[in-house]
Amino acid sequence: MKILNLYAGIGGNRKLWGDEHEVTAVEINTSIAKIYQDFFPNDKMIVGDAHEYLLEHYKEFDFIWSSPPCPSHSRINTLLINGKGVKARFPDMKLYEEIIFLKHFFKGKWVVENVRSYYNPLITPQIDGRHYYWANFKIDNATKDKIVRNNKGNTLKFKMKERGIIIDDFHGYNGDKRTIINNCVDFEAGLSIFNNAFNTKQQTLHTTKDEECEE
Q: Which domains does the chain have, with CATH numbers?
């Protein structure tokens, strides 16, 4: 099976997928892409724009996972703007461009993941834990997010252990490790959603007539 992993980061969602599939990952940050490649040397890594890569190559894959950047949609975004004088910004509509595009043009299984937004989502998602998922299959109890209420839960070491990915010095990354760990999809959720997509008992979700525009 051919899999496209967009906005791959360091591969939290991909960690438990195994190596029997042909995975292509797209990540725009060269340093982060290098960490991903260290973790998953058999995957094909593309350093570039995931949004454009999707448009140009979607027909080549059987399963597509997309995790577009979440900061402009996050509820934390409004807290920062309202509380600390951070400059306001438009929500990045590439998120909805990809959902609409995949829904109408991609023939395989697909999922788009993002955080819960500060506004009512423009397209109704499936909700699991602190995340929104748009997909053409049903997602059941994927997220294993844990609410940690002690100081230990805020340390980078604890977060890496919880996410199941350790970034050691040999990766050569000098940026903000906490941010790229926080951006990782929980690896158990990644596996659960992958299994949801290809569980023969699951039924593909189809667009209903009242969701379609009349020609």
A: 2-144+186-211 (3.40.50)
What digits encode the pLDDT tens for the residues 62-117?
999 999 998 888 877 666 555 566 677 888 999 999 999 999 999 999 999 998 99
Sign of CA pseudo-dihedral 153, 173, 52, 104:
negative
What single DSSP character describes residue 74? B
Task: For residues 19 and 23, give the distance between their C-alpha atoms in angstroms, rounded to a whole number.
Answer: 8
H or E element, residue 200: none
Kindly state the average pLDDT of the residues 38-54: 97
pLDDT in tens, 12-33: 999 999 999 999 999 999 999 9
> What's the half-sphere exposure (Cβ side, CA atoms, 13 Å) at 66?
28
Q: Are 187 and 163 in contact (CB under 8 A)?
A: yes
Read out DSSP for 125-184? Answer: PEEETTEEEEESB---S--------SGGGGSHHHHHHHHT----GGG---S-HHHHHHTS
Q: What is the pTM (predicted TM-score) of this model?
A: 0.82
